[in-house]
Recover the amino acids of this structure.
């Protein structure tokens, strides 16, 4: 016989990543009783920050975009103490480093690109037209256009293979966590828009500050950490310790693989895996908070995190973050170290490996035609939300959580109306 954990509640939300946190917050605001159950010891899911040997290390390299509508609605940016990246990237090529700056913030960069022959006038015009359209047109227009693979969309926009291979493919590989440019062009256009309209940055305390702020706004008694859910029942959930919690509705807000386990029959997209390597070195190899990518795609991106915020290392050393696709072996890591030496123009032999983290399902695959937001309804009284139900981004995860809350509220109200008649 299972033990009942507390009294019945209106809604149980399983998983306190940002999607579950948003869902719980909206349900609480609507006056429902909510229990938010998180298996881990802290909230955040993949958006987590660890303190290891005096270093502040995110669970994989992440950036925070200030332009997302859900971010503006839910978070105090001032409280996050955001530290910006340089608006642009450095691309390591066989001919040396090439800087691609955002011309909307640094107009003088246009002349430099043309004078150095980095970008042709035709490419610059095509990229400018694409960027202006994405930046200025309503999001609904971008969402409603026919979809295609990003690579095909870039070609159709008139961008040359040279620009795509030198700049766009290396950069977007780190955004999509795939280097074939097979990701939906709808998603690309929305992400490109957000990058042009917002600022890429990091909270001073690491990306974990984002879910921590969301959790801090929940009333006491809503959130329980260290409370893994083993299964769903017809009337609630069963915890891993055998306890049972009854609820009128259950929202599964875990990662996609865990959601598939709790909801048999749920269709989930394939996941993208990424590994981030953290190195410490006595001197910073790049004295600016700039993202570096590799035209040969030996790594996705790298940056000196202590240039973004010195507090990422307690001992005053430089902390370098480098991400690669998949799960590299020892030989691959050695090759990455060589590539970093070339990219930064320094000897990396003495760099200390501080930490390595592999993140399975770091992003869902987003192949065309991509449905940018899907219903969270799975079965009667059962819902599922997360970036795998929308887009692989903080915006997508928060928006999916908000949609789950709306659909739960609508269904519970309809249920009440059916039982007791129209309350009006």
């Amino acid at each position: 016989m299972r033990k009942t954990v507390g009294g019945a509640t209106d809604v149980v939300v399983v998983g306190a990543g940002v999607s579950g946190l948003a869902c719980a917050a909206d349900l609480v605001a609507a006056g429902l009783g909510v229990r938010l159950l998180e298996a881990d010891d802290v909230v955040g899911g993949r958006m987590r920050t660890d303190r290891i040997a005096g270093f502040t290390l995110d669970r994989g390299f992440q950036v925070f975009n200030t332009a997302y509508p859900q971010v503006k609605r839910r978070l105090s940016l001032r409280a996050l103490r955001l530290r910006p990246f340089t608006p642009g990237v450095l691309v390591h090529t066989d001919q040396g480093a090439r800087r691609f700056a955002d011309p909307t913030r640094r107009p003088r960069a246009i002349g430099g690109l043309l004078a150095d022959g980095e970008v042709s006038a035709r490419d610059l015009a095509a990229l400018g037209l694409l960027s202006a359209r994405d930046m200025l047109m309503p999001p609904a227009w971008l969402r409603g256009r026919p979809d295609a693979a990003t690579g095909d969309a870039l070609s159709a926009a008139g961008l040359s293979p040279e620009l795509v291979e030198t700049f766009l493919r290396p950069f977007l590989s780190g955004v999509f966590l795939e280097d074939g440019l097979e990701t939906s062009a709808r998603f690309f256009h929305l992400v490109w828009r957000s990058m042009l309209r917002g600022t890429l940055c990091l909270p001073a305390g690491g990306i974990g500050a984002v879910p921590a702020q969301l959790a801090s706004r929940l009333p006491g008694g809503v959130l329980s950490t260290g409370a893994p859910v083993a299964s769903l029942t017809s009337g609630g959930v069963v915890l891993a310790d055998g306890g049972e919690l009854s609820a009128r509705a259950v929202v599964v807000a875990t990662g996609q693989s865990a959601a598939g386990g709790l909801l048999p029959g749920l269709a989930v997209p394939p996941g993208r895996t990424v590994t981030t390597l953290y190195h410490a070195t006595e001197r910073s190899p790049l004295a600016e908070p700039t993202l570096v990518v590799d035209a040969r795609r030996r790594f996705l991106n790298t940056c000196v995190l202590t240039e973004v915020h010195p507090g990422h290392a307690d001992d005053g050393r430089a902390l370098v973050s480098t991400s690669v696709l998949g799960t590299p072996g020892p030989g691959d890591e050695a090759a990455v170290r060589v590539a970093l030496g070339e990219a930064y123009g320094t000897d990396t032999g003495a760099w200390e490996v501080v930490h390595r983290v592999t993140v399975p399902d770091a992003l869902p695959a987003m192949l065309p035609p991509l449905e940018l937001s899907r219903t969270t309804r799975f079965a009667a009284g059962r819902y599922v939300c997360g970036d795998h139900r929308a887009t692989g981004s903080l915006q997508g995860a928060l928006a999916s959580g908000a949609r789950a809350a709306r659909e739960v509220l609508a269904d519970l109200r309809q249920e009440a109306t059916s039982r007791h008649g129209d309350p009006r």
